[in-house]
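Action item from last week, closing it out:
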Amino acid sequence: MPGILRIAYKLLINDRAKYAALLVGITFAVFLMIEMTSLFSGILSRSSATVINIGASIWVMDPAIQTVANSIPLPSFMLDEVRSIPGVKYAVPLYSGSALLKLHDGTYQAANVIGLDDTSLFGRPELINGKIEDIFAENAFIAVQDSEFYKLHNPKIGDEFELNEHRGVFVGLAHVASSGLFGIPTLYTTYNRSLQYIPNTRFTITYLLVEPKTPEDVAAIKKAVTADGYLALTHDEFIAKITDFYTYHTGIGTNMMIMTLISFIIGLSISGQTFYTFILENIEKFGALKAIGAKSRELVMMILFQASFVALTGYGIGVGLCSGMIWMARLYLPDYAAIITPMNLSVAFIMVVLIAVLSSYVGVRKVLKIEPFDIFRG
């Protein structure tokens, strides 16, 4: 470390109270920023849970659909229509709907029921207990063992329940990539059984899942579906549509953005004021350094080093505290949805850099105006 930076480091940590105040301000701001953005990322991930878990390349739907949970059934003829489009390798129907279960102890529990194509079982989950072939047995359902599983009273294979006066049996337990957003368990069964157990409108296909022969066929398939008056979206496009809805058409995105901005302002105000006070209290030392030959750029380097050191240290502590809190929350709150992503870390890092730049700017202006004569005259 160059000598001038070593002096800057010692000046910084010499006043432990000011140094601690700077760290607390940055750490608290980073903690809040990452917590808010992580909650939003978790909500967005869970809002697209069905799309992520099914994993279809192309989803065909009604153009009015905004989220995967807001389904509008498709007419049955669309299945044959889509299958006849050149470039389609295969197309299968998917049912997605809500049901009210009566558990073995007499309590009721809402659940999301996914009906898979009887022939291919395309989109089936990964089983952790049981056999996928058992889904064809009479009254068979597969329960997803996620954060909502306990609401089914932790059933075992062979346990029974009642759905719309029909007997249901758990024949398997499955694992999926993402839990749902609305806090209800998920069951998988066959497409025809879901229609038999759950009352439906005249149209029964919730979505059509399409696999193209080659990636180049996607554009032609989407164009043909659009010509029929419906909408075809790729996996990523459907997730982006859902993300856009929750970000801009609900209060969730706006509220999270406001909270993140407030966190930034809190960190800037605390660290800026404390750093400015730190500069004022050490103004004589900077003046003395200038008097013995320190150049202005070296003094600026000292301040930038001090601001950067505090900002990066506070950033690391804030990320660690937020990660620990999320880990602890998931141990006791299975529904806790926060997810720390590279984007969250990048946003927080950029904001911390801005805090460091703005805080150091005030100090730089003050130090550059120092006249050694004024220091020693006092």
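Closing note: Residues 160 and 169 are 4 Å apart (CA to CA).
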